[in-house]
Each structure stands twice: as structure tokens, then as C-alpha cells.
Amino acid sequence: MTTKTVFITGTSSGLGKLTAIRFAQMGWNVAATMRTPEKETELTSYDNIRIFKLDVTDVEQVRSAVEQAIASFGRIDVVVNNAGMGTYGPLELARESDIDWQFAVNTRGPINVIRKFLPHFRANNGGMFINISSFMGITTAVPLGSLYNMSKFALEGLTEGLYYELKPFNIELRLIEQGGSAGNKFKESIVWNRDEHIRDYDDMIGKLEQVMNTAGDSGQLDDPQTIVDAIVAQATGESSKFRTVVGAAGNGLMALRNALPIEEYLEKMAENYK
Ligand SMILES: NC(=O)c1ccc[n+]([C@@H]2O[C@H](COP(=O)([O-])OP(=O)(O)OC[C@H]3O[C@@H](n4cnc5c(N)ncnc54)[C@H](OP(=O)(O)O)[C@@H]3O)[C@@H](O)[C@H]2O)c1
């Protein structure tokens, strides 16, 4: 059997790094991409992982990383669009640059990567894009996360929309909606929009911070390996679900969202932040 190859964005930490290691341990070749390869010390110890420099917002770097990975491995079978970040805070306080950056990383980034892989996948008559979304990409649940919601809802729309366009070429699309996962630096990388200060939002910010800080203690965070399991299940064909919601928190919210009229759902969620 020929060895398969996966290309992953954002492998310097968290889910991306764990996913790279899992595929390598399974015997796959891994094109692990990150913004700062010079700092990497862990992935370098695997013979079947090759590291490429990639900031997903830089179209020229995307072109170069995709070309190098294809030249290096000959063929890429699966692309995991994992790189992402979160901008939180009152919309009216967001810096213009933060708004653009949220979209640039979480939405435009996957677009850049997908576009550069399409000629290769069409030539191979197949391939798979696994886009890492969030339950925040299919429902809302907290205040002050509208920009993050926007970026992941857009990623979901992009992925669904592409289904029709790529089906004739045997190119598959998957979405993984994770909740919060333990052991990553996502929380630390959140950009809070609070260079300025508006007192009206203080209570809401305090409550959201409390929810984020206690999520780990109250068992609401998922074991990141369960998210890796979901990615692997799609890549290996063990599952062919278009959308996989991982974890109790995300699945609980989705059950509620599907059961209630949207007006009731929104009111119920807002109750938590009164
Ligand atoms: N953790 C959660 O609670 C959670 C919940 C739902 C969804 N997600 C999604 O899961 C995915 C993985 O996040 P994580 O939980 O593993 O968090 P993480 O540990 O913060 O990892 C994010 C990765 O994305 C990379 N990245 C950020 N901006 C980039 C850019 N412009 N170009 C290339 N790489 C970039 C980071 O690299 P640097 O080291 O260079 O910054 C890092 O490797 C993201 O798409 C995130 O939105 C996370």
C-alpha cells in the first residue's frame, strides 16, 4: 500500500501539533507547516515529518509551501486547515486591524490553501480538505465573540458551498467542530479588544472571562486527542460525515439549538450573561 501524505497548517502547538504527531505515528508522511519552523524542536525528531514555513495569510508563502510539499512528497492526499486564532471583545472596541486579521487567518487562510491545492487534487482526481471549525461556526453561545463566530460561520459556508463545485473532481470536504480543548494555547492567543474602555461592557467581559477560566475545572474542555481521532477518522475513510461535532459541550449546544426556535435559543443563551 502506498504511503499517504497529510498537509497540516498551524502545527506549532495545540491540535495541529498533536495531529501531525498522530499521523506520523500511524505511518503517514506529514507536511507540517508553521509560521516559525526555526523554533520547532519536537516535530523535527520524526523521520516522516517535514516542516515548511507557512503563514496562511501570505499568499506567496502559501504558494511556496504547497509547491515545496508536493515536490517533496510527490502527492498530498489530505489537507487539514487547522491554523486559527480568536478575537474577542465588544465589536465597537475592535481595532480595524483585528477585524481584518480575524478574517485573514480563520477564513482567508483556508481559502488561500485550498486554492493552491486545487490543481494538484484535480490532477490526482481526488483529495480531501478537512477544515477545523468550532461549534462557534454553527451556533452562537457567548457575547463578545461575534468576530470569531463570523470567521468560522464563513468557513462553514465556504466548505458547504465548495461541495457542489468540487464533487465532479472527487475532491472531498469535511468540517470538524470542536468545543474548547485542554492543553493548547488558544486561550492565551485570544486578542481582547480593550485598548479602550467602555464601562457598559464590564459585567459582560467579567462573566465571559469567568466562563473561559472555569471551563477547564468544570470538565467542559475536551481531550484534544478526541478531536485528533475525529480528524483521523475522516482522513482514513473510517467515517464520511461531512460535519463532526466533537465533545459534550458542542453537542449539547447543538441539540438545544436544533430543538428550539432561534428566538428562544438566543434568549436562553443570553440569560447566562445577565
Ligand atoms: N482551543 C479551542 O478552544 C478551540 C475551540 C474551537 C475551535 N478551535 C480551532 O481549532 C484550531 C486549532 O486551535 P488550537 O486549539 O490548537 O489553538 P492553538 O494552540 O492556539 O493553535 C493555533 C495554531 O494556529 C497557528 N496560527 C495562528 N495564526 C496563524 C497564521 N497566520 N498562519 C499560520 N498559522 C497560524 C498558531 O501558530 P503560531 O504559534 O505561529 O501562533 C498555532 O500553531 C483553530 O482553527 C481554532 O480556531 C479551537
UniProtKB/TrEMBL annotation:
Keywords: Oxidoreductase. It holds the Pfam family adh_short. One of its GO terms (molecular function) is oxidoreductase activity. It is an enzyme of class 1 (oxidoreductase). SUPFAM superfamilies: NAD(P)-binding Rossmann-fold domains (SSF51735). Its EC number is 1.1.-.-. Belongs to the short-chain dehydrogenases/reductases (SDR) family. This is SDR family oxidoreductase. It comes from Cohnella hashimotonis.
